[in-house]
Design a protein that fits this description.
Strand order of the largest sheet: 1-28-27-26
Largest sheet: 4 strands, antiparallel
Strand content: 35-45%
């Protein structure tokens, strides 16, 4: 994919939320997306046609993250009310509420089989929940973090989490082993490459870092954007050819995966803090959001989730959908740059 093929303007704006939008996620096949936000609702959309399909209401406070099962039948959500909601997509009914976090929940993910949910919290813990059981108690708690856990990724055998304590931690659930990669800067978002070989971490020193998932070595760094005070999402395009992320100045940035040059950037909102890519469709979804600054803790790191954006521009939801041209796959095999473990 050449730089000229990357999106430079909006294709669709989805409107309907009555407050700031805090997350947007595609479903597995890229035909639908979910958004959630300050108005305590989750909304299901067809972004290709610009149609709002359904609204899910039950949270008592803002909804910070949402994820859907591979068969599109169930979804999971979390937020400021410290609970994880397990929903039936078709009926909008809450099947179960998982309780156990001592503070706000920042992120949730289903495992591959949609049988287990893992949540990441401000209470410095990861918690795993069994969707097949009638119990509302966690089946596992991991509390080795030193600060708020902001983001989580799952594989068949591992849980990977990024924390404001400056680490990306990998937990091998088969043998009970924890591997810590210390990046030296607060981590506010992690995402996995589509080939499964790399982890991309967004840090509060205005740098995205690409790590080899098996060795923990630093493969590349991506700079040029501004990320110093707020949570900014990041991801790789569905071909792993480019890295993309938001910036506090309202721009969307695209970097070449291999040489880390900025190949495209454009202003999407007053501030852009979330991007989501479809693994199947050639689509990238971007948001401008508004929330609160991340306060500094005694250790000089950030203790709470906050997302920045333009209140006036997004106080009715603006989600920008851009189409990408198809390109050949570029896997995450780069020359090792620096050993971090």
């Amino acid at each position: 994919m050449s730089a000229s093929d990357l999106p430079r303007k909006e294709a669709t704006v989805l409107r309907g939320h009555e407050g700031a939008v805090l997350a947007a996620r595609f479903n597995g096949d890229g035909n639908y997306c979910l958004s959630c936000g300050k108005d305590r609702t989750i909304r299901l959309w067809n972004p290709h046609r610009g149609i709002h399909i359904k609204t899910y209401k039950s949270h008592g406070r803002e909804v910070r993250d949402v994820h859907v099962t591979s068969d599109n039948s169930k979804l999971i959500s979390c937020g400021g009310d410290r609970q994880i909601f397990y929903w039936d997509v078709a009926t909008g009914r809450v099947i179960r509420k998982f309780r156990g976090h001592d503070s706000e929940v920042n992120a949730v993910k289903f495992n591959e089989y949609s049988s287990v949910v893992v949540s990441a919290g401000y209470d410095q813990s990861l918690r795993a929940w069994d969707c097949r059981s009638h119990s509302t108690e966690p089946i596992q708690i991991i509390d080795t973090f030193q600060d708020s856990v902001m983001s989580v990724c799952l594989t068949k055998t591992e849980m990977i989490a990024g924390s404001v304590d400056g680490t990306v931690r990998t937990f091998d659930i088969r043998i009970g082993r924890e591997i810590v990669d210390d990046l030296g800067q607060p981590v506010n978002c992690i995402s996995m490459s589509n080939d499964g070989n790399c982890i991309l971490a967004s840090c509060l020193d205005s740098t995205l870092r690409l790590l080899d998932r098996s060795t923990g070595e630093l493969l590349q760094e991506y700079k040029g954007h501004t990320c110093k005070s707020y949570k900014l999402d990041c991801c790789l395009t569905n071909t792993d050819a480019h890295v993309t992320g938001g910036s506090e100045d309202g721009y969307i940035y695209f970097w070449d995966l291999v040489d880390a040059t900025v190949v495209s950037s454009f202003r999407a909102h007053a501030s852009v803090t979330a991007v989501a890519g479809s693994e199947v469709e050639e689509v990238v979804l971007m948001m401008g959001l508004w929330s609160n600054r991340l306060p500094t803790s005694k250790r000089g790191t950030c203790k709470s989730l906050g997302i920045v954006g333009d209140q006036d521009a997004l106080w009715g939801l603006g989600i920008v959908v851009n189409s990408l041209e198809t390109s050949t796959n570029s896997q995450c095999f780069l020359k090792k740059k620096e050993k971090k473990r």
